[in-house]
Design brief:
- The protein has helices at about 5-15, 30-45, 60-65, 70-80, 90-95, 115, 120-135, 150-160, 190-195, 200-205, 210-220; strands at about 1-5, 20-25, 45-50, 85-90, 140-145, 165-170, 220-230, 230-240, 245-255.
- By secondary structure, the protein is an alpha/beta fold.
- It has a 6-stranded parallel beta sheet, with helices on both faces. Strands 7-8-9 form a 3-stranded antiparallel beta sheet.
- A hairpin with a 2-residue loop joins strand 7 (about 220-230) and strand 8 (about 230-240).
- The radius of gyration is 18 Å and the shape is globular.
- It starts with a strand and ends in a 5-residue tail after the last strand.
- Bound molecules: adenosine monophosphate.
- Adenosine monophosphate binds near residues 26, 27, 143, 170 and 172.
Length: about 260
């Protein structure tokens, strides 16, 4: 496995790669959810590129960025074992040599759901994804359906800008009790972790958004939103953490609507 910090070096090496290139962008603290994206890429491409980059511009809350977990050594071992060929570890000065003067905005869906409570979040996401796609020039890029709104926005961006890249959505990987794996789960207190497992179950109830919100609040979550959109219900909530409440998101495809 090749590890590259310098993006100029990577661009020079990219030219010598042939075949189908699969790309998995992450912010590190890798878990089984990330590994399922990596495995999908390894199984379906000739070369797999993983990026680990904690993208400051998508954090609307500086304390959220400061707390973001980092486990680089373990990440590299897991990536190597899963068959990654190239790991890109850029830093802010390389990704944002423009000082973030150039930004990629989506004017509609990015303002809903998570966009309501996290102003600027999806502009940061779309901007960094566009930069990473242009650096990697993949055949396919893999995104988790846990972050369904992100997946849909990235897919839409590639269509809107005629990028010849297939955006592949990968099913959410969950703990046995139903909690969607997330790097942020590490920050939950024991009490918060016990509560967190109820999110997925309550979200799947065949009830109105209002009654699902009441049930979540009744259990002790603080709720940002609960919203049915098409055949999926989306939610963002906060559960107790060691130092601060931890924001959790999830979405489920509603059985009755399938
Ligand atoms: P992150 O490091 O949180 O930015 O996530 C990197 C990628 O992994 C994103 O495409 C996420 O949607 C995906 N991902 C994160 N958690 C999961 C999960 N539990 N199941 C599937 N994909 C996930």
């Amino acid at each position: 496995m090749n590890i590259v910090h310098c993006m100029d070096e990577w661009r020079a090496r990219r030219g010598s790669l042939s075949g189908r290139v699969g790309f998995v962008p992450t912010m590190g603290a890798l878990h089984e959810g990330h590994l399922s994206l990596i495995r999908a890429s390894v199984d379906n491409n000739d070369v797999t590129v993983l990026s680990i980059y904690v993208n400051a511009t998508q954090f609307n809350d500086p304390s959220d960025l400061a707390k973001y977990p980092s486990t680089l050594e373990a990440d590299l071992a897991a990536a190597n074992a899963a068959g990654v060929d190239w790991v890109l570890l850029p830093d802010y000065s390389q990704i944002y040599a423009d000082g973030y003067r150039y930004q990629l905005n989506e004017e509609s869906f990015s303002r809903q759901l998570c966009g309501t409570d996290r102003p600027g979040h999806f502009t940061g996401v779309l901007t960094v994804v566009m930069k990473l796609l242009n650096l990697v020039v993949p055949t396919r890029a893999y995104f988790g359906l846990k972050d369904y709104q992100q997946f849909e926005l990235v897919k839409g961006m590639c269509e809107a800008f005629f990028l010849p890249i297939e955006i592949v959505g990968v099913e959410t990987v969950r703990d046995q009790d139903g909690l969607a794996l997330s790097s942020r789960n590490k920050l939950l207190s024991p009490e918060g972790r016990k509560l967190a497992k109820k999110l997925n179950k309550i979200l799947s109830r065949n009830e109105t958004d209002e009654s699902v919100r009441d049930a979540l609040e009744g259990e002790g979550f603080s709720v940002d939103y609960v919203q049915l959109r098409g055949d999926r219900r989306f939610a963002a909530v906060h559960a107790p953490g060691y130092t601060h409440p931890v924001r959790l998101i999830d979405n489920v495809q509603m059985e009755s609507l399938k």
